[in-house]
Amino acid sequence: MIRVLYVDDEEMLLDVCRSFLDLSGDITTQVACSGQQALAMLASSHFDAIISDYQMPEMNGIDLLKEIRSDGNSIPFILFTGRGREEVVIEALNHGADFYLQKGGDPTSQFKELEHKIKEAVRRSRAENALKLNESRLKNAQTIGRIGCWEYDWNDKNSVFWGTEESFQIFGMPRPLDGKVPLSLVWDHIVERGYTNNAFNELKQNGAEYDVEYHIRPADGSANRVVRSRADMVRDQEGKPIKIVGVIQDVTERKRAEEGLRRLNKDLRAIKECNKALFRARSEPELVIDICNIVCNVAGYKLAWIGMAEKDARKTVRPVAWSSNVDGYADRLNVTWSDDESGKGAIGEAIRTCRTVSMTNILQQSTMRPWHDFLNELGFQSMIAIPLMDGRSAIGAIGIYLEEPEGFNPEEIELLEEMAGDLAFGILSLRAKERQRRAEEALHKSEELYSKLMASIPDFVIVTDMNGDIVLVNDIALEVSGWQLPEVLGKKLFSFVAPEDLPRALRNTELMLNGTLGPVEYRLIMKDGSYLPFEANGDVIRNSVGMPTGLVFVCRDLSDRRKLEMKLKEANRKLKVVDSVTRHDTVNKLVVLSGYMEIMKAGRHDEKITANLAKMDMIVKGLVEQLNLTREYQTIGMERPEWQSVREACEKGISQVDLGKVKANIELDGLEILADPLLEKIFYNLADNSLNHGETVSTINVYAEQTPDRVKIIYVDNGIGIYPENKEQLFMEGHGRNHGMGLFLSREILGITGIEIQETGTPGNGARFEIIVPKGSFRRRIGEAC
Q1: In terms of CB atoms within 10 Å, which end of the chain has fewer, N or C?
Q2: Could you report the per-residue pLDDT of 529-542, keeping only the tens digit for each?
Q3: What pTM was computed for the model?
Q4: CB-based contacts of 439: which residues, under 8 Å, 6+ apart?
């Protein structure tokens, strides 16, 4: 059905025309009395054709036609008017009227002519619209499919190429209005000209199938494309060639997808081979070299190399492996992971940022400028750098290169990242195994050394757990004690200590856990039931976090020393008897001599004799004093050093001096030191010196200051003090006025156990003596331990 809009200002003519056209059966007519009404109806309804009078008020038929065509509406337009001027006809046709029909004459034939023109105009319009739609659809299909049509005129001696818009777009060329260009202009952009020219000639000469794929360099400078072109020969009725018609399709994306799929398949095979390499690798160098060769030989990439991130000041990337197909590549690298130019490349950035870096057209990347020359020389146009991760930091990176500028697709990158993750895991596993191997080797050497030390050391070595069960004992301990190894392992250590010594041993072990126990003597129960005296030093075994895990004891056999001590003691006893008898006889004789000298003094003598007698008296008194000193000195070291309460020794020593009104403050609670039994003499001598030489002494203070490696026992008075030039001479034999040998003997007594004494006071502020006790010779008393 054809819908027609008839526009005329004469209502009677409108009714007649509508009635007559409706009689045709396939035309339905609506009418409008003016151009404005017609435009309104066109805006709201669809019509297939318009019939319009020319002479109408406000808007004539030509003006209505102009208004309709100005909106781009190509609806068939028939001017039906009573005016037959030629200029009106020309103007109507120039503005897009399809037909012109003059009113008047036989109505029947006139309206039949109008019906015919309406149907012809609609038919042509529908055909044109259908053609435009088909052309649009074809163009869209060619654009979407990247397919263009082309023709080559066989008989045109100028070798002209005709093509559609899409054909020229594929070649990156603007299309001329007639779509024609010299064939050579198109041919220049084909890379494989020899191959395509041969196929084209085969088609022209032999009618062979023309179906080729080739690369083109687009005229607009865009990236190379891959195209497929198919063509056939068109002949006339006599079979003579007329022209060649063909299609050309841009298959770049398809080829890229096919290449991507091919690479993905190779990547999957490469991952499989890499996993095999991970299992068979025995060292890190072997693994990284295998991986580089697999990436190139199996996955088909042009180059792969692996660099490790050094921790030096320059942050060097050290090449450790590269594929064998490009020898010498690593020697030309100067890559870091720092923030300067040498670290801005893909590898450095991947390590620094811990992210994958994929670069296309690397020769156009400014960050790759330091390496442009040899990248261009080797023909690489794209690359990817993937970090090898250890937790949140990168230990290095793997770089992979392509000759294609487009680079790596997302699926490919995902697979390569998976492969890099497996590689990093393999490297870290091999490093862990290597550390374990070295640790085991070091442990073996340590155990071997430990075993040799245990076998060669002359002392007993016994190790227990925290429950006191024996877990290790050396051969010498077993050999001397008579016990067999199965008889002692797992047994309580203290079950082998003499019952009388057991309470002491338990208390001293508690001190050892606090780190305050020195060497202590006990008796070991031998296999035959006898007792063996020994001296034990103990310490706590701790793990890496400081928790105690066991105890170790080094015990020294004292039986030989006891025998030597007995012999020495007997020798000393004999010397003491001789010394005592000799000293006793000498003193008696000196007393007799002194008596005779006193008798001589009572007589009358000249002054010279009297002076000589006085000198002789001084000599005799000096000899008596020295003999008394030898009596005291011979007792030093006669008894073994022992742990003593410093407070008790101090109080006992000072109590032997008549303090008078002098006040003594002693703050030494709990402190014990290992010293000669004459320790109390030290404090006696210090107090005696304060009273005899301090002149203004009213207070004596004794206290201690402790550090981790020593204890200072400080003796201070508030007397006149000691001048610096006299400080060291204080401890010399026979120094000072009426000092006797007190401080000299004090230093000797303390020196037996490595204890030092010095005077550090300032003149006018009193004397200050510091007794310095080294580590191992002091402890804090817990309960009653010794």
Answers
A1: N
A2: 999 998 888 888 88
A3: 0.45
A4: none
